[in-house]
Amino acid sequence: MVAGVVVLLVALPLITLPLALALGVRHLRRYLLAESHGVGEVLADLRQGVLGSLLVGLVTLLLGTALALDVALGTAGVLPGGRVVVVAGWVGLAVLGTVLVVAARAWSPATGWRAALRAVPQELGTDPVGACYVAVAVGFVALLTWQLPPLVLPGLGLLVFASLAVPERLLARG
Membrane spanning segments where (predicted)? Predict the structure, then answer.
């Protein structure tokens, strides 16, 4: 629940959503590893990462808005080939959400977003089933939030938890 609060509060301006997810992942990872995981650590990460995250947040916001607009216009029947546009828009939103969550898992203040985004293709390529799990988690949180907006708080926390749990299943197999 605390991870959901961290993500929700930092993501309120929308442009800071990637940073918010990364902070939630780092907070929950520290908690699971029994490291210091208080507000001070979250604020330190926030201070170190806010400037470097603005470009990633802006690109994410613009892409998400364009894809959502395509879905809305395709559903309304305004665009020719609307069904294809709707399907492509939903697939694009799923891919965008999955890439965002996987990159947020790889982000750290020391390496930044460039290294995190470079790690995404390798992570998705080595574990395509895990990528599907993350995509389902993104879709579930979106559906949950659409149906009942107050559930965004636990939903974001569950998304952060899922992003950490998916790679752990490979480690458990050995």
Answer: 46-72, 84-108, 128-146, 151-172
Collapse the DSSP code of 81 into the 3-class scheme (helix H, G, I; strand E, B; otherwise coil) and give the result: coil
Q: Please give the Cα distance from 31 to 36 (Å, whole number).
A: 7
**H helix and E strand count, the chain:** 7, 0
Mean pLDDT of 106-128: 94
* Cα distance between residue 71 and residue 79, in whole Å: 10
Domain, as residue range, for 89:
2-173
Region of poorest pLDDT, from 25-39, 64-78, 131-145: 25-39
Distance CA 23, CA 33 (A): 15
Rg over alpha carbons for the chain, rounded to the nearest Å, is 16
Number of independent structural domains in the chain: 1
- To the question of pTM greater than 0.85 for the whole model, the response is yes
| CB distance 22 to 117 below 8 Å | no
